[in-house]
């Protein structure tokens, strides 16, 4: 064996040990002690979770090739565990079987490590600030994916006159031989997409929880489902899509607060007299809630300007001493980071289009890709901080590259054993290039012009509304003003 081959082999051993340390740090053995499998099972829970993370980390082209690479690395870093199964189908079958338990276990371990953050980023202005947003991910156009993820077409109810008109229209289209072209357009438009709704921790820049569903899923419904997973003292920040009496009531009922932008489709009241009022006190009390005897939501309005037009921010934190107007503006501005995380996930991590041909496998691919990206970013942040760097300058692209190079059997880096996984993660920092902050001058010929969100309509409460609010306080003791 030549000196270069011996050196490369030593390098490989060092990095496989580093990968083992990384996986052990994220998925410690004690976390799996409560999971039991039948005697002689091919896949154990810990090996299954480790290979799933390595599978998502792999940069191989196909899913089966990623599995083969992940399996080889998993065998080397966990030599004391039984050898995993050899087939991709068997791996996916077991991963589907154990998905719920392993997903809860892995996210729980990662959340624990996030809470132990030694760099003071867990809270902002005394709150655990978490941003909510959603994005779509493309899927292969198979019949199974279309059935599970494409939006369901709603049939319109037509009267006799409308039915006759529609029938004449179809006959005319058939005579002009346009039916085939219409079907082609319909198929092209029916491209399956997965909707991903994410809770993203603003301080660390890492995910916290998510839900997936068809492309026409409700973001607010997803976030409402995830409210029990939020830590104590959470403040949710989101854009104008996350409005509504039901959603805001659910957030407040769960013991959390929010800072959310309000758009033109929101109607607010002032001078209702339901609570102690200040100049910035407003209420959300739609007629549907008032008829059901539900109380108005007492809120605080904050106006900020983004350089183009005013923005209206609504918060449930009524005290300026607890959260100032300036802190509210900064928190909402920091919400933009969740958009960057989506870009990292879809572009840098190459998950803009998943590869799975069935909806069950597509969900596994999306979920474990998020866990893997979460884990590698957390690893890199900890290494950067221990090297006296700023974790906020993390380069996700550099961290992903470090992991994927370490997993690869054939490395083209002649840097020797000093270029270890930990060293590469510690140096995964953004460059000092001064990027253009104002991109309005750039030409975007393909960019569609978005309609402005606008500002909410604020009106003075009617006498009937004031009377109804006063009556509600009298009949419902829990709504009375404090003495």
Give a nutshell description of this structure.
The chain is α/β, with parallel strands linked by helices and 483 residues long. Helix content is 45%, strand content 14%.
What does this protein look like?
- This protein is α/β, with parallel strands linked by helices and 483 residues long.
- It has a domain at 128-132 and 196-341 and 455-479.
- It contains 17 helices and ten strands.
- The chain has helices spanning 3-26, 45-57, 63-77, 88-97, 99-115, 143-149, 160-175, 179-189, 219-226, 245-253, 287-291, 325-334, 337-348, 359-386, 396-407, 421-426, 463-475, and strands at 128-138, 193-201, 206-214, 234-238, 257-261, 267-270, 281-284, 297-305, 310-315, 457-460.
- The protein starts with a helix and ends in an 8-residue tail after the last helix.
Q: In total, how many beta strands?
A: 10
**Outline, from the CA principal axes?**
globular
Sequence of strands across the biggest β-sheet = 3-2-1-4-5-9-8-7
> Kindly state the mean pLDDT as a whole number?
85
Task: Sketch the topology as an H/E string, one letter per element.
Answer: HHHHHEHHHEEHEHEEEHEEHHHHHEH
Distance between the termini: 86 Å
Integer-rounded radius of gyration: 27 Å
- Ranges where pLDDT stays below 50 over 5 or more residues in a row are 1-13, 182-188, 410-417
């Amino acid at each position: 064996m030549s000196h270069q081959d011996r050196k490369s082999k030593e390098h490989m051993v060092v990095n496989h040990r580093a990968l083992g340390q990384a996986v052990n740090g994220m998925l410690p053995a004690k976390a799996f002690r409560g999971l039991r499998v039948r005697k002689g099972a091919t896949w154990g829970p810990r090996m299954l979770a480790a290979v799933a993370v390595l599978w998502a980390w792999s940069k191989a082209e196909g899913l089966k090739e990623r599995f083969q690479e992940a399996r080889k690395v998993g065998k080397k870093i966990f030599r004391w565990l039984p050898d995993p199964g050899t087939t991709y189908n068997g791996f996916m079958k077991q991963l589907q079987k154990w998905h719920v338990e392993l997903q809860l276990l892995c996210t729980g371990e990662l959340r624990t490590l996030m809470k132990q953050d030694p760099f003071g980023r867990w809270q902002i202005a005394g709150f655990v600030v978490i941003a909510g947003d959603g994005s779509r991910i493309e899927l292969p156009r198979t019949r199974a994916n279309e059935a599970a993820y494409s939006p369901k077409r709603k049939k319109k109810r037509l009267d006799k006159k409308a039915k006759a008109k529609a029938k004449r229209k179809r006959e005319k289209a058939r005579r002009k031989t346009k039916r085939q072209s219409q079907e082609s357009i319909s198929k092209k438009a029916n491209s399956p997409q997965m909707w991903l709704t994410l809770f993203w921790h603003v301080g660390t820049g890492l995910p916290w929880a998510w839900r997936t569903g068809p492309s026409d899923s409700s973001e607010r419904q997803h976030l409402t489902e995830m409210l029990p997973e939020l830590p104590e003292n959470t403040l949710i920040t989101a854009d104008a899509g996350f409005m509504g009496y039901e959603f805001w009531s659910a957030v407040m009922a769960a013991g959390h607060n929010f800072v959310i932008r309000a758009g033109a489709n929101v109607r607010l009241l002032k001078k209702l007299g339901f609570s102690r009022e200040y100049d910035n006190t407003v209420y959300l009390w739609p007629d549907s809630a008032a008829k059901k005897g539900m109380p108005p939501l007492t809120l605080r309005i904050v106006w900020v300007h983004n350089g183009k037009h005013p923005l209206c921010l609504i918060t449930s934190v009524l005290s300026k001493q607890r959260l100032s107007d300036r802190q509210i503006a900064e928190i909402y501005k920091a919400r933009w980071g969740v958009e960057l995380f989506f870009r990292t996930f879809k572009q840098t991590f190459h998950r803009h289009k998943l590869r799975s041909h069935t909806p069950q496998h597509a969900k596994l691919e999306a979920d474990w890709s998020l866990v893997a990206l979460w884990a590698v970013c957390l690893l890199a942040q900890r290494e950067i901080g221990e090297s006296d760097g700023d974790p906020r300058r993390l380069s996700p692209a550099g961290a992903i590259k470090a992991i994927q190079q370490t997993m690869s059997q054939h490395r083209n880096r002649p840097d020797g054993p000093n270029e270890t996984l930990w060293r590469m993660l510690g140096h995964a920092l953004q460059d000092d290039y001064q990027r253009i902050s104002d991109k309005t001058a750039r030409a975007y010929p393909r960019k569609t012009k978005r309609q402005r969100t606008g500002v909410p309509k604020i009106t003075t409460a009617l006498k009937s509304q004031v009377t109804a609010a006063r009556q509600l306080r009298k009949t419902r003791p829990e709504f009375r003003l404090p003495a």
